[in-house]
Write a structure and sequence with these properties.
It is built from 14 helices and 7 strands. It is an alpha+beta fold and 345 residues long. The model has no long low-confidence stretch (mean pLDDT 93).
């Protein structure tokens, strides 16, 4: 089909139905960038509060480039995938040095920045600079697969590139921002995943080939993900008086450079934990089992059990802080269930 046919009805619908989102006010490249990185793997409703807090404390590229990493990760806490924040800071530092603090307007320059892929680069260039460049994410792939009744696998890079190329042929600078946002919005509000699209209110229904051919429930084609690896963990909430033990993770790998409660791979009973602590020269005054918890990452799942352990004295292997002093440290959401700040004494 000719995709030019969807331009007018899509933009008309978008202008009448778009959500009032903070990053859509007084649009800048920095606002689009921050919001798009936050929205990766995170729902819009959850992002709003984080976005407002982040922009209040880090309103400019220069401040992002210079903020202390621990504070940056603390502001990011709850969003997960912390490398997103680290890459943003690396990109901000490049913008400061290579582009004199001004966000580059050339698509390839934007694409070269750490943590920015073709979708995010397209979103920044089209929304902030009105460059006629597509921004193809999962929502857009789903919408256009259904509109075109395409059985191409949307998990394949070749499918994404094919759709990007099709869009490039119809985009113009005067309509690209509303068009790209319209496709994203339609996928978020109407052309929903998992067989639940709201076809009755879709502005593209009369043009949608999958609707015409009764194929909506079969599209898009999406190959199955590999199952996540399951990992057992034992979390140790060590306390001496009003102070809790935390430590910093390695500089690479999962949750790199984040702070955490001491933990070990595998599930251990009370006697095994006591022996482990003796080896660490930690004298246990009291030990209490905590309920199990589970945390899901992209490629693995943590199945956790925990112990609250009162110690006679602190061990120098750890950093010992009060509940109030925990606030500046970037404790991953994975440890949320065992965080003493979330318990009522």
């Amino acid at each position: 089909m000719n995709l030019e046919q969807i331009v007018k009805p899509l933009i008309t619908w978008y202008l009448q139905n778009k959500r009032d989102l903070p990053w859509r006010q007084d649009v800048t490249a920095y606002k689009v960038w921050v919001s798009e990185i936050m929205l990766q793997q995170t729902r819009v409703a959850a992002v709003k509060e984080y976005y407002q807090r982040f922009m209040t404390e880090i309103p400019t590229i220069k401040e992002l480039a210079n903020i202390e990493e621990d504070r940056l990760l603390s502001l990011w806490q709850g969003l997960g995938y912390y490398n997103r924040a680290r890459n943003m800071q690396k990109a901000a530092q490049i913008i400061e040095t290579k582009y004199q603090g001004f966000f580059p307007t050339n698509y390839l320059d934007v694409l070269s920045l750490p943590g920015i892929g073709s979708y995010t680069a397209g979103a920044i260039c089209s929304l902030a600079f009105h460059r006629p460049i597509p921004a193809v994410d999962g929502n857009v792939l789903r919408v256009l697969s259904r509109v075109m009744a395409s059985f191409d696998d949307i998990t394949k890079l070749s499918t994404k590139k094919k759709i990007e190329q099709s869009l490039r042929s119809i985009l113009t600078s005067d309509m690209v921002s509303d068009f790209n946002q319209g496709l994203m919005e339609l996928g978020a509000l109407v052309c929903l995943p998992n067989g639940a699209p709201k076809c009755s209110i879709c502005p593209l229904r009369s043009l949608c080939l999958s609707y015409e051919q009764n194929l909506v429930s079969k599209l898009p084609v999406k190959s199955a993900k590999k199952p996540r690896r399951k990992v057992e963990k034992t979390i140790l909430v060590l306390r001496h008086q009003d102070r809790y033990a935390i430590r910093k993770r390695e500089d690479s790998g999962l949750l790199a450079s984040m702070y955490e409660f001491p933990n070990i791979d595998g599930h251990y009973d009370v006697d095994e934990i006591k022996k482990l602590l003796v080896n660490q020269k930690i004298e246990v005054q009291q030990i209490k089992s905590l309920p199990p918890s589970k945390h899901i990452f992209t490629h693995l799942e943590w199945y956790m059990i925990g112990y609250e352990i009162v110690c006679f004295k602190p061990n120098s292997n750890y950093l010992w802080v009060t509940k109030q002093e925990l606030d500046p440290y970037s404790l991953p959401t994975a440890f949320h269930y065992y965080d003493p700040r979330n318990k009522n004494d």
